[in-house]
Amino acid sequence: MKVATWNVNGLRAVLKKGTFQSFIKDYKPDVLCLQETKAERGQAAVDLPEYEEHWNSAQKKGYSGTAIFVKKDVVVEEVVLGLPEDLCKKYKLHEDGYGDPNTEGRVAAVLLPECWVVTSYTPNSKPDLSRLKLRHTQWDPAFLEYMLRLEEERPVIFCGDLNVAHTPDDLANPAENEGEHGFTAQEREGIDNIIAAGFVDAFRKFTPKGNGHYTYWAPWRMLRERNVGWRIDYFFVSKKLMSKVKSTKILADVMGSDHCPVLLQM
Questions:
Q1: Is 42 exposed, middle or buried (0-12, 13-18, 19+ CB in 10 A)?
Q2: CA proximity to 5, closest of 238, 242, 236, 243
Q3: Read out DSSP for 45-84?
Q4: How many CA atoms are closer than 13 Å to the CA of 223, on its beta-carbon side?
Q5: Cys-Cys crosslink for 155: which of 78, 203, 235, 238, Cβ 3.0 to 4.6 Å?
Q6: How much of the chain, in percent, has pLDDT values that exceed 90?
Q7: For residue 59, which phi and psi values (nearest 5 degrees)?
Q8: Cβ-count burial of 18 within 10 angstroms (0-12 exposed, 13-18 middle, 19+ buried)?
Q9: For residues 20, 22, 28 and 30, what is the CA-based torsion angle, rounded to 10 degrees?
Q10: Which fold has domain 2-265?
């Protein structure tokens, strides 16, 4: 089974460029997890008859949104969109000054015979760090508690744009970005907590050390061409499932978005 994650930064845009279709043709993922779709089902002319589409679009038009496309020969036992309401209340997610992040289409999950597969588009803490408190004290703990809850039923693979570089190896200029959004101690602590809870950063399992492995490049100053980027798109896998993971690869040559896909093969 091949599972891919990709922040497409607007599904309609990558479809118009033809890069989405080329990616599907070349890599043929069994499960495709998307973030920042910026569309509702039917707005994007997706012609993939071999896939079932499960969308969680934001209430705000043209904003955020996730989706999971699953090949029709893969059994889907259940589909869950968003975070559970009890966790939203527990962590007061409805009280964010920017608006309720659970209405922004940030999480979708499918239950397969082998595991849960979850896609997440974690809220950005903003350049002025005005959403950092939400991220650190509300969203991250709520999302992790949800993953642990799912894991009680079946092993979990969760993936997506988590909007943080975990270690200095995960961005080209760590010293310059220390304390900036995407590389604050609070955001990085969220990843520490995920790993402490027993989930494995699947890419780092196969590539333990070293920089230069990035999934996002700001779209200016030829940063992608110069590989001045960030690794902020991840696969995390339950420890009990890691023995079945054969590889996790960053597909930096796939164009169309300011992020590239990541592919996990089991």
A1: exposed
A2: 236
A3: ----TTEEEEEE--SSTTS--EEEEEETTS---EEEES--
A4: 16
A5: 238
A6: 94
A7: -65, -35
A8: exposed
A9: 10
A10: Deoxyribonuclease I; Chain A (3.60.10)
0.70 exceeded by pTM: yes
Kindly state the tokens that stand for 193: 């907590």
- The model's confidence at residue 72, banded by pLDDT at 50, 70 and 90, is very high
Please work out, in degrees rounded to the nearest 5, the angle formed at the alpha carbon of residue 17 by the alpha carbons of 16 and 21. 85
CB count, 10 Å around CB of 260?
22
Please choose, from the candidates 210, 257, 209, the residue with its C-alpha nearest in 3D space to the C-alpha of residue 233: 257
Domain boundaries, the chain: 2-265
Q: Which amino acid type is present at position 62?
A: G
Label residues 196-223 b or e (16+ Cβ within 10 Å = b): eeebbbbbbeebeeebebbbbbeeeeeb
* pLDDT tens string 84-139: 999 999 999 988 888 899 999 999 999 999 999 999 999 999 999 999 999 999 99
Q: Which two tokens stand for residue 142?
A: 């709520």
The alpha helices in the chain, defined as continuous H runs, are 11-17, 19-27, 85-90, 132-133, 140-151, 174-177, 185-196, 202-206
